[in-house]
Amino acid sequence: MEVDAGSRTFFDSPERLPDEAVLQEILKLKQNGLMNQLLEGFPELTVLLNEYRQIVAFNSHALSAFRTEDYFAIVGKRVGEAINCIHNNAYEGGCGTSQFCRECGAARAIKSTIDNQSNNAQECRITADLDGCEVSFDFRVHTQPIYLENKNYTLFTVQDISHEKRRDALEKIFFHDVLNTAGALKGLTEILPEIENENEREEIIKAIYTSSKQLVHEISSQRELRVAEDGDLEPNFNSAYSFEILKSVKELYSNHSLNKFNNLIVQTSSRDELFITDHTLLVRSIGNLVKNALEASSEDQKVILVSQLEQANILFHVKSETVIPEHIQDQLFKRSFSTKQKKGRGLGLYSVKLIIEQFLNGKVTFESNEQNKTTFTIALPIESKK
Description:
Layout: H1 19-30, H2 33-40, E1 46-49, E2 55-58, H3 60-65, H4 79-82, H5 105-116, E3 120-130, E4 133-148, E5 151-160, H6 162-191, H7 198-229, E6 238-241, H8 242-252, E7 264-267, E8 274-277, H9 279-296, E9 303-310, E10 313-320, H10 326-329, H11 348-359, E11 363-369, E12 373-381
Parallel strand pairs: 7-9
Antiparallel strand pairs: 1-2, 1-5, 3-4, 4-5, 6-8, 9-10, 10-12, 11-12
Helix pairs in contact: 6-7, 8-9, 9-11
């Protein structure tokens, strides 16, 4: 039987059966009543994949997840293509062949089952393009080899654990970050009555103000992220100056524990540009990039924040001296992924991309290599669409 082959792959084979051959396989499997009853018995998205990772049978939950009512609309597609993963068309070979697929739990589980004919289970982060908007999912996937009608197949089931991951992240934020800030605030207020020196009292009062401001910032950031994910965030667009934005971010981290070695350098050598944006959302987004950079930097490594005008865009660069490993670069901006490898982290970069690209009409990019180190860039139009 003729097999179509793609020209390039970074992970799994690009070969696939032509649509006509897959359609014949689907029609044959539809006649297997027992198999179809078993598929419908699963309470979540479940598909049957052929040896080329193409979908040849699925249950009604899959139709709903793939946002189609046409049974034959996904003939010959792979899972990432059916769910419209943003990386599914990165290369001609499709789902499973890009460098991003190397870190995809679904791609790894499917490959393991096909290669070894054994069960596998993985967690998987997928960002899908749904009607022009990027939506992030956290899945737990299970794969199992199935021998049916003299052929090897892979049974692939998906459990959506997005709410579980979100709960873990919020618990981490509120039980760790917010609690630490609240604890520091409590300690400062307890020692304030004992301070008699006026200069020391002023320093303590200033620290109390900074800690309380940071506490409100943490809580407000998470509230805004939740509203943004629901699509209900309404930016307050107004005129702003680039130096004003830089100053606000600098103040945010002026007395922050992450900046105790004064690693953060804010440069204002370029022109002070006037543009349209939501000041609060932009400062918090840049602040998240700065926070990540400070966390990844040692005490002798600087983090530089600078702005510049490029054509009709205002750019904000956050530069650091560390280099992000390639396997981590492939997963940045995905919800619940964290470079810290701790449970409940990973909302920072995800929230930056969500808010900047879907609500402030901007773009978030990054570059990380040994030659230039790491730079995250937020690009915003001078005159944003309100």
